[in-house]
Request: fold
Amino acid sequence: MKGWMGKLKVFSLLGFLALALAGCGKENLTALVPKGYGAHTSMKLIILTTIIMTFVFLVVMIVYVIVLLRFRAKKGQEDYIPKQVEGHIGLETVWTIIPIILLIIIAVPTTIATFKLADDSDAKDHINVEVTGNQFWWHFNYDDEKVQTSQDLYIPTGKKVYLHMKSSDVIHSFWVPAIAGKMDVNAENTNTMYLKADEEGVYWGKCAEFCGDSHSLMDFKVIAVSPDKYEKWVKDMKSFDPDQKPETAAAQEGKDLFKEKNCMGCHAIGSSPIQTAPNLTDFGNRSKLAGVKEPTKENIMQWIQDPESMKPGNKMTGKYPAVSKDEAEKLAEYLMQLKPSDVTPESVSE
Amino acid sequence: MSHHDVLHPETLPAEPEKATLEGRNKYLGFWFFLGGETVLFASLFGTYISLRNSTADGPSAHDMFGLDLVFIMTILLLTSSLTSVYAMYHMKNNAFKKMMLWLGITGLLGLGFLSLEIYEFTHYITEYGFTFRSSAFGSAFYTLVGFHGGHVTFGILWLASLMIRNAKRGLNLYNAPKFNTFSLYWHFIDVVWVFVFTVVYLMGKVG
Amino acid sequence: MTDNANTNNVVDEYQKTKNKEELKGHLISFAMMIVATLIAFGIVASGVMGKIYAIPVLVLLAVVQVAFQFYYFMHLKEKGNSMTALLIYGGIWAAALTVTGLGAITWW
Amino acid sequence: MSVTATQKRGLGSAIWDYLTTVDHKKIAHLYLAGGGLFFILGGIEALLIRIQLMKPENDFVSAGLYNEIITMHGTTMIFLAAMPLLLGLMNAAMPLQIGARDVAFPFLNSLGFWLFMLGGILLNCSWFMGGAPDAGWTAYAPLSTTSPGHGVDFYILGLQIAGAGTLMGGINFLVTIINMRAPGMTYMRMPLFTWTTFITSILILFAFPALTIGLFLLMFERLFGAAFFDVSLGGNAIIWQHLFWIFGHPEVYILILPCFGVFSDVFSTFSRKRLFGYTAMVFSTIVIAFLGFMVWAHHMFTVGLGPVANTIFSVATMAIAVPTGVKIFNWLATLWGGRITVNSAMLWSLAFIPSFTIGGMTGVMVATVAADYQYHDTYFVIAHFHYVIVGGTVFGIFAGLHYWWPKMFGRILNEALGKTAFWLFFIGFHLTFFIQHFLGLMGMPRRYWVFLEDQGLDTGNLISSIGAFFMAAGVIIFFINIIYTAAKGEKVSGDPYDGRTLEWSIASPPPHYNFKQLPLVRGLDPLWIEKMEGNGKMTPAEPLGDIHMPNNSFIPFMISFGLFIAGFGFIYHNDNMIGTIAMFGGMAIALLSMLTRSVKDDLGYHISKEELEKEAE
Ligand code: HEA
Ligand code: HEA
Ligand code: CUA
Ligand SMILES: [Cu+2]
Reply:
């Protein structure tokens, strides 16, 4: 069997596979199509390092292939004894110095980028959001505006939005690949990072630090809207009246059940400091239920009746009296009409 | 070299602890072990330093620590280091009984140190209600100082078993390395204590 | 009890004087260690130094003591121990990194 | 005890022999068998991972079980498979390479093995006792401190015991190499594998204590109510991360350096050339180890240490590419102008170069801190480290096994089977892990029990899973090869490859005293020198005389067994009386065994000159 030929085949096969693989992944999720300041910064370094690495790899491979082509033992060479070379100072120097130069080329922009991304000296001039990571959901508190929301983070495009992040339990990590790199969310200190989105869109966010059973279901969305829409959204959220009467009778019954079944003990509707469970003020506008499921009525009912089946290990299971199918339907009815604003994920994703 | 030579040598060489390959191996291996212990204690010191102010509203170092007791403990342990040097001096001169005497004194000084430490711990627990579970500082303090105390305890047990086992045998090439390793260990405990009293007590008092 | 160690005690005179000299060195270093300890405790008990000065001085005194222990009591200075010494420096290096790492950057 | 005598004994006494052996060559067999077993276990866990991730929202295993599987996969592979296999190779070859009759501490050597084995068994008992650890192999607090059940306790105690064994192995090798080299074997004449064993042991010595303390703190927290990581009592969970990675980063070099040694020896043997740039190779190993202690925070770039710490650690990390590059190029230069024979050992070694280079380069990419904000905790990192670990460590282990198999067992592994296994594994390896770079960047974090539909991740994951089965097929064929070779493998002489180093100057398998007379070493590649000068064999450095050998001992097993029982005790002492009894009982067994050891003089025995003469060639 010919070693190097097999290897060449494998490598070219892999290369094609990679290319064929649906471009670069799903838009608004993949880090390979950056749409925010942080992601652009990282991407530039990714491209720079990839180019340098490709160069290094080619150099190694060229020598490697030559070696395998030229120096394999041939017939009749059984007794051939190659020259026993000790080494070569010149060569050693060359392959020490060149990598050092290449690394300096990487290190300088890396340092600059790292300090830029960490610079929060102008935070007070921008929007600030307190982010809390919980097993397995996210809470967003717009303290200056007195607006609370969960799962969906609304930000204006083209502006820096500072996130001050803290965990209420174990470590999580806040990651919106298309907009910015990730930052851990610890319980002992507040970490700060900022987002700056180029264009409107619903961006996928993920929890990147292992945090328990439903770590893989701790998704959230960042909804970037134009600054005007953002202002409107804030206004709508602020003026939302949790006591306002729902339109349908079923929703009204759902509203009562929401109190009766002790949902209110954990979930706030409207701007309330309660943070034990997702704030449901704009639940009707959520792009996903509990971060990952389609927010259809059936799914919401299933969630209310048996959240464990959708998100193992979640902190809602078993904390409220049993809910019948009928009751669940009414609760869903109520929750789905909670639409304080017409600035919604749908309004930007079209 | 036959077994007889090892256990009953005609003469003892100048450095009996390093005269056999086994002895040299033991000596070197033990040094490396101590190298590992250095990192072990460094990890504990690092943890302690980063948690020393995390008192969770419980008592702090400044509130509790008194210097007198620690000073006496320090002198006891430092002296015991010197007495073990005397023991090794006599080992090299092949004066077995004198060696045993000084080793005994070393052990007693160690015991004295240990009793004072136990007294100190009970004092903190009863006077201040300061325990292992009080705060992160409490956990770090008892773990660091307790690890050192554990090493002292182990050293004393080790010394006792060495002395009892060899009481009637005199010095030979088989046990000389063992005595020597013990003395290395004992010095190391002293080294660690120097840092304990500096970092925990003195720096705790300073603030 | 037969103390057979005494029957074959052939450590020669030269060796004995050498051992004695070594002991003298040990006594001196012990005295220095006591002095270092006294100074350290003195600084803290008297409160003559501010915190910023006291802590580095205390650490320095500790390091000096440890050097004495290693080099005199534990015989690191003797020839033939160079590999040991090299490795111990490695350990001290790793230890120093550990302490700095944990002590300094945990709360950054 | 001659070879024939060994063969005549029954199974029972053979088992007893292995339970009590202090012979480094037999301990090597034990390590290889134990490590091999755990490699299969870890591999099966890997297959379960890949089956679960074969398609989106798969429900092959539950979330809880998946977390246990990945935790055990990582922990098993690193601590119970890769490291013991490497320790096995070291035990098998290193003492022979320096011309030693034995290791410095045969007793400790055996103790080290049994601690590893029983620690590993303890850890795996968790599967049957209420669930395995599920906080990842990194066991980050507070996830690990709050994980319910006893899984994480098994992790703590199992690793504590196994880790103690590894530490002993490290000290043993260090002293062996410093004190027991044959006459003339100066440091700068040691084969590269011996050098890397030496440096690796230093890494073990200085890295493992940090883990020991980390595990102690975790244990105090979980079992005795301490508050190191409990924020409400002022604790700080980041301390665990520091301690873990102060250990963890050197650990990855513990995994790779010995393999660098294997490759160096294999390349020079099969290209029939002296290793190019020997001094540079030695020096770069030292530099890698040295730098390896200064970079741990590159696993913590997103923790929020701040830009100063992040860039310092980033640049320090990149620096490691330089000495590693020196190695890659010196290997290429060794091959250059050689007369290259490609057999299985060489195939694994040749395949290592491109595979590891890719892994190393992605290493530098993840070290680029502002880019790591994207890579961290995604499949890009999974791809990086499997490229270096599988493409480096596992390839190295396979290369070493093929290379030294005839030395260890007197029979050479079958070439056809060896090559088939290689190609299946090699293709599967790239299929599985190359695609994962893209998966990571496309938004797939690691430790994800499921990935959702319609995220563009389906094809990539499927390909990755298919690759894993190719690897499995390769591994299975390798094991078939072992069985085949044991039954009908070709018997070989002491020097089947025209070798260069001392291990090839004695019989295969070597007699239990290794060298009848210690060889006189006259330079690098001592056997090669003698061959070139027409002597064909080593000149003895001493007249034939009595050989001092250590006694077998059952005490290492007993000490480890005591700690094993005590391990259960610690885990269950809060639950019931039996736990407390086991805790004290186990400690008593261990301590009494130690006491027995220290009270009973053990001076070993001698093989007399006459016996040796009788066993003449
Ligand atoms: C065998 C094990 C092994 C080895 C050898 C390495 C080698 C390296 N590793 Fe890797 N690493 C791991 C095992 C290993 N790693 C594991 C297990 C993890 C994850 C742990 C976890 O989180 O679970 C990890 C994670 C990890 C991270 C953290 C990523 C993250 O979580 O975000 C980083 C970051 O810097 C990193 C960097 C490096 C670097 C720079 C090297 C370098 O040593 C590589 C050097 C080699 C080369 C560069 C190639 C050859 C060189 C040349 C041909 C010269 C020219 C080259 C250039 C100029 C670039 N590794
Ligand atoms: C030495 C280290 C090592 C090795 C060799 C491997 C080998 C493999 N690993 Fe991994 N892996 C880790 C160390 C290692 N791994 C670590 C540290 C983690 C992180 C864990 C964590 O996050 O905490 C990880 C995580 C990890 C993940 C990510 C899980 C997640 O984040 O959710 C994946 C996914 O693909 C994976 C896959 C594989 C595969 C397919 C192999 C394959 O190479 C395996 C090949 C072997 C086989 C397939 C065995 C075949 C044997 C048989 C079939 C039995 C035959 C029977 C007889 C002969 C009797 N590993
Ligand atoms: Cu939260 Cu993962
Ligand atoms: Cu690392």
The pocket of dinuclear copper ion (ligand 3) is lined by residues A 133, 136, 172, 207, 209-211, 215, 218 (CB under 6 Å). The radius of gyration of chain A is 27 Å. The mean pLDDT of chain A is 90. The interface with chain C takes residues 189 of chain A (CB under 8 Å).
